[in-house]
Design goal:
Layout lengths: L1 H8 L19 E5 L6 H16 L3 E6 L2 H9 L5 H4 L4 E5 L4 E4 L4 E6 L13 E5 L6 H10 L7 E6 L5 H5 L1
Parallel strand pairs: 1-7, 2-5, 2-6, 6-7
Antiparallel strand pairs: 3-4, 4-5
Length: about 170
Amino acid sequence: LQEMQELSTNRPPVEADEYQKPPPSPWDIWIFKGGRGSGKTLGGAEFVAKRLKEEGAIRIGVMAPTQEDARLTCAEGESGLLTLYPELFTKYNRSQGLAWTKAGGYVRFLGSEKPARWNGPQWNYLWVDEAELCNPQSLEQADFGLRLGKSPQQVWTTTPKGARYVKMM
């Protein structure tokens, strides 16, 4: 985490464009579907960071197709949450995919390969990256756990790979 904080101090601040930000609430699921390089990861990371800044001790689940995708893209990637907003976190356990926030909450980065990992945790918010490639059973389990706070929400950032889930919405 300290290494990421040092890297982030040497880069100019990054802010999402309007099209990369969710619309004003109320909504349950916001789907940001775009091609490669459209800023989907930045949009997801900014959504999570904004919620952490505004609400403090909350729980956020971040799903990607694989554990490696969750870590290398959503957490540690060029526009990943820990890369862009290291100041929000006190500790990061890379092997567990768990980042503790200064306010006492946490963000959990998990892959969708094993749906049982999503059976149990409860969330205020979910960020699902590359939703079209995620295991549908993991999406279902994560959805059951989305029940904390006044208005739990999900952000899905995805390329239009097969659009099977997006068509169902």
